[in-house]
Design a protein that fits this description.
alpha/beta, 5-stranded parallel sheet, Rossmann fold, Helicase, Ruva Protein, domain 3, globular
Length: about 475
């Protein structure tokens, strides 16, 4: 089967032949135009035909950024890729400002085209069938080590696979709790750097006065408290990947220092006059809208364009509901492995989980399920999930040390569970003696253990008959 959903625009016919050759090996037929004006006219006549457009930047008839601008006006969903022999910041900026999705240097053109051909093949073949969903699951697990089956997460996997084989910076954007660090690790794990270190840095958690020392290192005696020399995070990432999480929280004054390090690939420790070359690949992440931060003067424009060469947007969980059930079952399965129990979510619980919007994304889903797991028996029903969602809301509402009613209820339930476990240990496994310790009827003691999932129903029934 061949796919006819890619258009290539380049006034160099040899370049066009190279693109067609690479894509044909993946069963993808490329429509090639050596005239940008003719190509735009053709796209206007067939606005839904193409899923990907490969555009040369330096063309005599019309520049690549202008061509991208026109393509996006016709159909904003077309994935636009710019190839250029000039990878200066000014060129990158021009392309990104008009909406180009990706930018590649022609120095690695064939290598990148081969990766893009894989994306074109995987991304657009039958997106709605059950077979495609199963393929999505396999792809998401193999590339991202995550659970899901949505087209949205599969597209993220496609980008990770493509970007892993390049050295350009990647900027991951998405709401809190969407798993940005997991995506960054997937980029590293799928790259040629996977044998070296993955160094994660939370830029918002380091005090401003220590940021330079933490990232670039310092010499002994360079400031008060510097009793020993220290290698910074960039040196620790030599040969590997450095992940700059919450890059939007980085102080404005420090951003110019980071930009220099990214451009020169060298660091100067605090208190030293000697710069050291470092071989690193940078992946950054933020939950902020950096374009807006640039407009507001909170983030340097030149740093933004340097980091945003290869962007990945992680959709919120509410925009990929198909993934929610897979993730929920995975979380429960992992807890079962950890506790050697066999708890499960009822159909009612799964329905509630899938219909809820999860403003805190995967992180909130995980917190709710883990607490519901601890506080409930073998069957985790809809009421248990609703209770924990409400508790989670309450916790987020109290920011001044006030304890919510849900917290008190949960503490009480956790204490009950602890007493049931401790009493059985003290009675050396004799449940009748354990019940006496707690001043409970034997039948009540057994039912409570069942409620908390400490025993299976079969085991408890057998014990009653002894």
């Amino acid at each position: 089967m061949t796919f006819r959903n890619v258009i290539a625009i380049d006034d160099d016919s040899l370049a066009g032949e190279a693109i067609k050759m690479v894509f044909s090996k993946k069963g993808i037929s490329v429509d090639f135009f050596d005239s940008p004006k003719k190509a735009i006219l053709h796209i206007k006549e067939h606005p839904r035909k193409y899923k990907m457009a490969i555009v040369d930047f330096q063309m005599k008839e019309e520049s690549g950024d202008e061509v991208v601008k026109q393509i996006k006006k016709i159909n904003g969903s077309i994935l636009t890729v710019v190839l250029s022999g000039d990878d200066s910041l000014e060129t990158i900026k021009k392309c990104q400002e008009v909406g180009a999705d990706n930018f590649y240097s022609k120095g690695h053109a064939l290598e990148n085209l081969a990766l893009l051909s894989e994306v074109a093949k995987d991304k657009y073949a039958s997106e709605s069938s059950e077979e495609a969903k199963e393929l999505n699951e396999q792809k998401i697990e193999s590339i991202l080590s995550l659970k899901g089956r949505s087209n949205e997460l599969a597209r993220v996997a496609d980008l990770v696979k493509t970007f892993s084989n390049t050295e350009e910076p990647v900027l991951i954007q998405g709401a809190s709790g969407t798993g940005k660090e997991r995506i960054a690790k997937a980029i590293h794990n799928n790259s040629k750097r996977n044998k070296k270190s993955f160094i994660a840095v939370n830029c918002g958690a380091i005090p401003e006065n220590l940021l330079e020392s933490e990232l670039f290192g310092h010499e002994k005696g360079s400031f008060t408290g510097a009793t020993n020399a220290k290698a910074g995070k960039f040196l620790a990432a030599d040969g590997g990947t450095i992940f700059l999480d919450e890059i939007g929280e980085m102080p404005l004054d420090f951003q110019v220092k980071l930009l220099r390090v990214l451009q020169e690939k060298e660091v100067t420790p605090v208190g030293s006059n000697r710069s050291m070359k470092v071989n690193f690949r940078v992946v950054a992440a933020t939950n902020r809208n950096l374009k807006e931060e640039v407009r507001n003067g909170n983030f340097r424009e030149d740093l933004f364009y340097r980091l945003n060469i290869l962007p990945i947007e992680i959709p919120a969980l509410v925009k990929r509901r198909e993934d929610i059930v897979s993730i929920a079952n995975f979380i429960i399965d992992e807890k079962n492995k950890e506790t050697t129990q066999a708890k499960k979510l009822t159909d009612e619980a799964l329905g509630i989980i899938k219909s809820y919007d999860w403003p805190g994304n995967v992180r909130q889903l995980e917190a709710v399920l883990k607490r519901a797991y601890v506080l409930n028996g073998v069957s985790i029903n809809g009421k248990a999930i609703e209770q924990q969602i409400e508790c989670n809301k309450a916790e987020n509402s109290y920011k001044h040390g006030i304890q919510s009613w849900c917290d008190l209820e949960n503490e009480f339930l956790e204490r009950q569970r602890g007493l049931l476990e401790e009493s059985l240990k003290l009675s050396k496994g004799n449940k009748r003696d354990a019940a006496k310790m707690l001043n409970l009827k034997y039948t009540t003691y057994v039912s409570k253990r069942l409620k908390f999932g400490l025993d299976s129903k079969t085991k408890s029934t057998n014990e009653k008959t002894l």
